[in-house]
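PROTEIN ENTRY
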Amino acid sequence: MAENELCPFNNANCMCQFCTEPCNNGLNCWECKSKGEQVHSVYLCTGFKGDLNRYLENWKAHQTEGENEPEKR
């Protein structure tokens, strides 16, 4: 997601929100934004350019909690 925004649809699992250079590798934030709701989760992106550790820590935290909430800032 551009400028390190978190997912506006509260999808804690989507990798796109931690990407510093949004790509067009099939799925990205455009699909969700155009529908106005969460339509997918990207768990692995070959074009990911961002803080992988931040994404993994957020993903692990929500797997343990069993929740799908975004990282708290």
